[in-house]
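DM between two lab members

TW: hey, do you still have the ABC transporter domain-containing protein entry open?
JB: yeah, one sec
JB: this one, 165 aa:
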Amino acid sequence: MRKGGLDMLNLTHVTLKTRQVILQDADFTFKKGRIYGLLAINGSGKTTLFRAMSKLLPLSSGHIAVPPSLFYYESVEWLDGNLSGMDYLRLIKNIWKSDLNLRDEIAYWEMADYISLPIRKYSLGMKQRLVIAMYFLSQAKCWLMDEITNGLDEYYRQKFFDRLA
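TW: and the structure you got?
JB:
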């Protein structure tokens, strides 16, 4: 990253291979304060790239410079069905030392009726709203979001995009 904080995340000569080459000698700079989208066909390696960008997977070669404040929660499938949404929100609030109010996040995402229930009782849309609330609650400077609006109806998609604006 450049001094002055102009860049948020940098890929330098990145090669990423699994069963296939996902990236080869790629350079890219993600600027601070901008929103980027990554569009590609299913199975092309988008999630694998996010895993590498978040340091969950090693690169074949090259370097990725990430900010210390990066939040990545790959999928609602990572949620433990025996825990409640409130358990997760409290965990994120404590780990990230967030000054946001839990009740405000719960109210914004309209989760009060179910936030204390075990996640195994949540629908896909309910889980997705929880994960989105976790992103906001983290107050991280950089988010990697993988198919974050999957399972959301149009009403909650719009709330999400309004909140980003």
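TW: got it. The radius of gyration is 17 Å. The helical segments are 46-53, 85-95, 102-108, 124-138, 154-164.
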